[in-house]
Amino acid sequence: MEDTQAIDWDVEEEEETEQSSESLRCNVEPVGRLHIFSGAHGPEKDFPLHLGKNVVGRMPDCSVALPFPSISKQHAEIEILAWDKAPILRDCGSLNGTQILRPPKVLSPGVSHRLRDQELILFADLLCQYHRLDVSLPFVSRGPLTVEETPRVQGETQPQRL
């Protein structure tokens, strides 16, 4: 028993967390946010929006979980296809509807609406605002692509075919 080693669980967990967050950083970084204004439902709150489908609804597993009776289980979705493209808002057949406030527009189930930065949205009776986040480009261009011919090695013959 004298040869046993004490394990520091905190250090191992921190290392694991750092590795996973670094490897997923490009996928996990939000590209937008949905701001919920304060009101009868409670204080204001921000929800990050990521590439792909962001489901807005009452269920706890939704990307934007709004646990209020007026919000449907899966009320709407905000789909972001690329960081430089406008997100698409769709109502998922909610009971109390989804609206754009300026100019006024009620979204029918399945109808797409391209969101603009700072656009006001009404999910049932809950006022929200979409914000586009400035996201760094995944790569940096280093100038025009050039193609160079591969130099031949002296004495090299044609490659043999198998």
Written overview of the protein:
By secondary structure, the chain is an alpha+beta fold. The protein has a domain at 32-132: Tumour Suppressor Smad4 (Sandwich), CATH 2.60.200.20. 12% of the residues lie in helices and 29% in strands. It has one helix at residues 9-28; strands spanning 32-36, 45-49, 52-57, 64-65, 76-80, 88-91, 98-100, 105-107, 112-114, 120-123, 126-132. The strands form two sheets. Strands 2-1-11-10-7-8 form a six-stranded antiparallel β-sheet, with no helix packed on it. A five-stranded mixed β-sheet has the order 4-3-5-6-9, with no helix packed on it. Strand 7 (98-100) and strand 8 (105-107) form a beta hairpin. The protein is elongated. The protein starts with 8 loop residues before the first helix and ends in a 30-residue tail after the last strand. The relative contact order is 0.15. Residues 4-26 have low confidence and may be disordered.
Taking the alpha carbons of the first and last residues, their distance comes to 61 Å
Structural class determined from secondary elements: alpha+beta
CATH first level of the domain at 32-132: which class? Mainly Beta
Spatial shape = elongated
CATH arch. level architecture of the domain at 32-132: Sandwich
**Spatial strand arrangement across the major sheet:** 2-1-11-10-7-8
Organism: Homo sapiens (Human)
Protein name: Mediator of DNA damage checkpoint 1
Pfam family, one: FHA
Region (Disordered): 1-22
